[in-house]
Amino acid sequence: MKKKLLGAVVLAGLLAVVGTTAFVARSALATGESASATAKPASGGQWKKGITPDAERALRKMTDYLASLQSFRVESSAKDEVVLKSGQKIDLLSQSRTSVQRPNKLHSEQIGAKGGLAFTYDGKSMTLECTANSTYATKPAPATIDGAIDQARKDFQIEAPGADLLYSKPYDILTEQVISGELIGHETVDGTAVTHLAFQGEEVDWQIWIKDGSEPLPLRFTITTKTMSSQPEFDVALTKWETKAAISPSAFTFQAPAGAKRAQTFPRICSAGASR
Q1: Is residue 29 part of a domain?
Q2: Comparing C-alpha atoms, which of 228, 238, 207 is closest to residue 82?
Q3: Is 150 contained in some domain?
Q4: Cβ atoms within 10 A of the Cβ of 149, count?
């Protein structure tokens, strides 16, 4: 489980994978604590002691299925809990649409709100765009989605817990600091039968609800950050999965809008009034 991921920004995803609203508000409320603000490099893919066999099978089935998807699209609705110094909890909401074409194409953007962020990766470069003030930053990128997510987290300093699910080996990323895991039960999410798993980690606890049947897709993903005294939570619902999406190559090509200004360093706040 990555503790500091491409954040609620674009993948919320899945990214939140990357939820823009959370990124903007968290920057303004920097004195508080956020559930999605916590990372370690991935470790090997060994079976984890402490995970019960039924939870292991369910998680492996889901991660193997995700890794097998070559071209897909998903929408996400994320809630990132920020705790202020006063102790007050604020829920920051965002919606995103993420498109993936393995091994080296990724696009994620906020939907349903004005002035959000969009992330585009074409296998050679990656661009983060703030549509609110027509600012964008473009940098050379690694040759794979895994490398691009890691570099984007470093260069753009953005987070996205849901991005764990986009890696080529999601099992390794999800379980890298897990110390125990179990199958909680069989439930429903929006009328769909799911298997509910819960995992404890050294610094992060998380839960996932996986669709039953031949398409074991994650439908909900919740993370609790234990390294913060307030233990804030990040929650994302994943909907409208298109597992064999026909995505136009233009979706992964960034074209700067007329009048847009390229920035050397992307601003910490994406809003109409932010400095370029």
Answers
A1: yes
A2: 228
A3: yes
A4: 29
| Residue 31: CATH number of its domain | 2.50.20
Say which range, 22-26, 78-82, 255-259, has the weakest mean pLDDT: 22-26
Residue type, 114: K
Does the residue 169 lie in any domain?
A: yes
Tokens describing residue 84: 């202020």
For residue 223, give both structure tokens: 């993370």
Distance of alpha carbon 10 from alpha carbon 118, whole angstroms: 6
Instruction: Name residue, tokens 């090997």.
Output: 44
Contact (Cβ atoms closer than 8 angstroms) between residue 114 and residue 61? no
- What is the number of domains present in the chain? 1
Report pLDDT for 185.
98
What are the structure tokens assigned to 79, written together? 């809630």
Contact assessment for residue 178 and residue 51, using Cβ atoms and an 8 Å cutoff: yes
**How many other C-beta atoms are found inside a 10 Å radius of the C-beta of residue 264?**
6
Residue 34 lies in a domain: yes
pLDDT in tens, 119-175: 999 999 999 998 888 899 999 999 999 999 998 888 777 666 678 899 999 999 999
CA distance 13 to 1: 14
Whether the pTM exceeds 0.90: the reply is no
CA-CA distance, 161 to 12, in Å (whole number)? 6
Separation CA 166–CA 159 (nearest Å): 14
Residues paired with residue 25 on neighbouring β-strands, in sequence order = none
How far, in whole angstroms, is CA 253 from its chain's centroid?
21
How many angstroms separate the CA atoms of 78 and 91, rounded?
Answer: 10
CA dist 252 → 122, 124, 224, 263 (Å): 5, 11, 32, 20
Nearest residue to 233 (alpha-carbon basis) of 6, 92, 81: 81
